[in-house]
Amino acid sequence: MNEHFDNQHALKKRLEQIEDRLKSDNFLNNRELGGEIGFYIFDYPAQFELTVREYVTFSLQRLDKLGYRFVHLNLFAEVLAMLRERKMLDEAFKFEKSKGIDGLAKALKGPLEQGRVAAYLKSKIEQQDAQFVVLTGLGQCWPLIRGHGLLNALHAHLGATPLVLFYPGSYSGLELHPFDLDSVDVAAANYYRAFQLVPKTNPVS
Fold first, then answer.
1. pTM
2. 3-state secondary structure of 50
3. CA–CA distances in Å: residue 180 to residues 19, 78, 142, 147, 151
4. What confidence tens digit (pLDDT) does each residue in 61-112 have?
5. Sign of the alpha-carbon dihedral angle for 134, 140, 144, 146
């Protein structure tokens, strides 16, 4: 009980810093990364998904009113749109019922190959003159989409545009662990070029 409260309190403190980070000149102009591509991760315990969604929605609404230009894409909604465009959505629903999510992931490995997903997202992003990109909804479409694979594929498409992935799980600075699952192969979960949007070690007054 106390651990749950402590985790929730620590997460709230980090969430309260998101707006200032997204507004900062260092973030918007990649001035703090030593030449690295500005890809960021905000990791959080998956049980607080609804809390994170609420904070992100309100923060982005305020930034929009202040005139900041960004693209917010929900990965689950984009996956559904991709499958619908290819007239595969109904069959995907049926396949999941009969084979389960793991079977569906194998069946859609080609149609939802990470490079194809990245190219699709790029087509949505390049329609706008965005200062940064926000990706949410990963937990809803995992394991169809995996964070490390998608970020690797997006590198070739976004160039210097800062991107933030909200990640249900943990990120050590070297390794991504979806939902904190110990069974996830660490070698497959590694992603080395992202940065913490709000580090957990940040002192907060």
1. 0.88
2. helix
3. 26, 24, 13, 13, 19
4. 999 999 999 999 999 999 999 999 999 999 998 988 898 888 888 899 999 9
5. positive
Q: Which of 187, 195, 108 is nearest to 143 (CA)?
A: 108
Average pLDDT, the chain: 86
As a whole number of angstroms, the distance between CA 51 and CA 67 comes to: 25
Confidence category of residue 58, pLDDT binned at 50, 70, 90: very high
The rounded distance, in Å, linking the Cα atoms of 139 and 144 is 10
Q: Which two tokens stand for residue 192?
A: 């080395």
Alpha-carbon gap, residue 122 to 133, rounded angstroms: 10
**Residue 59 CA, distance from chain mean position:** 16
Nearest to 30 by CA among 162, 163, 199, 173: 162
Q: Report the pLDDT averaged over residues 167-190.
A: 69
Structure tokens given for 31: 């001035």
* Burial (0-12, 13-18, 19+ Cβ within 10 Å), 140: middle
Residues paired with residue 170 on neighbouring β-strands, in sequence order: 177
Which of helix, strand or coil describes residue 181? coil
